[in-house]
Amino acid sequence: RHTCFSCRCLSGGRCTVMESGYNMFRVNDTVNYSTTAVCKIDDINTESFTGEESRYYVLKPVHQEGSTVYVPTENETLVAKMHKILCRKDVNDLIDQMPTCQLDWIEDEKNRQEAYKKIVAGGDRKDLIGLIRTMYFKQQELTAAGKKLHAADERIMKEAEKLLYDEFSVVFDIRPEEVLPLIMKRLEKSR
């Protein structure tokens, strides 16, 4: 047995903690990985996908059984896309702030798509809420005028909702489709 330098554990050669310049993750941590999904860190192991051995976080998406994502522990760009999920208190605080979260609607379709895709890729929860609310209100406005939201805008809104609802569902230990009713109930109570 040896003492691991990064976490001081007695790992016997197989440490369950890896440290990068941005985060420290452990086996069984639940993380958001980019726009992929909420994942559980199933393992940290050595693989030789490229012909030489490297250490990888082995991520199992929570809502996509049978899927596995491998993130090289030494690739700071990819590891920087891993973020621990929020705690229940932080999610409740975000829900309470929802009525004040909204973005400006960008009239130019190309600029709007670009700006909103960046928000989704960035994964900031408050920005995602603002994006969803903005798209929702625009959709309501268009529906009242007998029009529809552009298909590309609708895809962006669905992607933002999926990211947010997947994380909130894990935090509250409910199914993703139960998140919106939970949010609405909490907002009703706070009025």
Strand content: 15-25%
On the 0-100 scale, what is the average pLDDT? 86
- Secondary-structure-based class equals alpha+beta
Which series of helices and strands comes N to C? EEEEEEHEHHHHH
Low-confidence runs of at least 5 consecutive residues: 1-23
Shape: globular
Our measurement of the CA-to-CA distance between the termini, rounded to an integer number of angstroms, reads 58 Å
Number of strands: 7
Proportion in helices: 40-55%
Q: What does the radius of gyration come to?
A: 20 Å
Compact overview of the structure:
42% of the residues lie in helices and 19% in strands. The chain has 191 residues and is an alpha+beta fold. β4 (37-47) and β5 form a beta hairpin.
Write a structural description.
It is a single chain. The protein is built from 6 helices and 7 strands, in the order ββββββαβααααα. Strands 6-5-4-3-7 form a 5-stranded antiparallel β-sheet. The N and C termini lie far apart (58 Å). The chain has helices at residues 76-79, 88-97, 109-122, 125-144, 151-172, 179-189, and strands spanning 17-19, 24-26, 30-33, 37-47, 54-61, 69-72, 82-84. By secondary structure, it is an alpha+beta fold. α3 packs parallel to α5 and α4 packs across α5 (151-172). A hairpin with a 3-residue loop joins β3 and β4 (37-47).
Write the layout of secondary structure elements.
Elements: E1 17-19, E2 24-26, E3 30-33, E4 37-47, E5 54-61, E6 69-72, H1 76-79, E7 82-84, H2 88-97, H3 109-122, H4 125-144, H5 151-172, H6 179-189
Antiparallel strand pairs: 1-2, 3-4, 3-7, 4-5, 5-6
Helix pairs in contact: 3-5, 4-5
